[in-house]
Write a structure and sequence with these properties.
The protein is built from six helices and five strands, in the order H-E-H-H-E-H-E-H-E-E-H. The protein is of the alpha/beta class. The chain is globular, with a radius of gyration of 15 Å.
Length: 185
């Protein structure tokens, strides 16, 4: 994957990227919104410091660490990716509360249409704000969207220093364990 130039990154502000989605996935991972690197390349979680792909692999969701440009391979594992807010920004904290609430409404409709077993929102603050759940914590949520269960994971951005890659992978693994035990029943 080619490294975007500063001009490419500047031009990517506000750009959207397509979802990696199909009906009836096991897990639909939901980022907050595309960063400029992702918006410039068209690949989710594309910035080199982002820990989504390593955490996905270390948790056992994928048999090897995929690159962002291999994102379509997720569908073969029953996994997909979308975002709460569709447009690219340099930092997620550039989004307003109104944008997160509107994005959560769009996400809800998408989940109702595609019916994944689990929606995994990657960012506690975005989940709390978008879905009006001020007391939500990392992990499974009591709410459902239609028949879809909801799990909140930490944001995998390198800017989220609260979670090391090992701790992040452990959170992803907890979700995977629940997904697999649910599938067995």
């Amino acid at each position: 994957m080619n490294r975007p130039s500063p001009a490419d990154l500047a031009a990517a502000h506000g750009r959207t990227i397509p979802d990696v989605i199909a009906p009836d996935l096991a897990v639909l991972f939901c980022g907050i919104n595309p960063g400029l690197w992702s918006a410039a390349t068209g690949h989710h979680f594309a910035r080199p410091g982002n820990r989504f792909w390593p955490a996905l692999y270390r948790s056992g969701f994928t048999p090897r660490q995929l690159r962002p440009d291999e994102q379509e391979e997720l569908l073969g594992y029953g996994l997909g990716i979308t975002n709460v807010a569709a447009h690219g920004t340099a930092r997620a904290d550039e989004l307003t509360a109104a944008e997160l609430v509107a994005g959560a409404a769009t996400l809800t409709a998408k989940v109702e249409d595609f019916r994944p077993r689990w929606l995994a929102v990657l960012g506690i603050v975005a989940y709390r704000t978008g879905f009006g759940r001020r007391d939500a914590v990392i992990g499974p949520q009591p709410d459902r969207i239609g028949g879809t269960r909801v799990w909140v994971l930490p944001n995998p951005s390198g800017l989220n220093a609260h979670f090391t890659l090992d701790r992040l992978a452990a959170q992803f693994a907890a979700l995977r364990g629940t997904v697999e035990s649910d599938a067995g029943h």
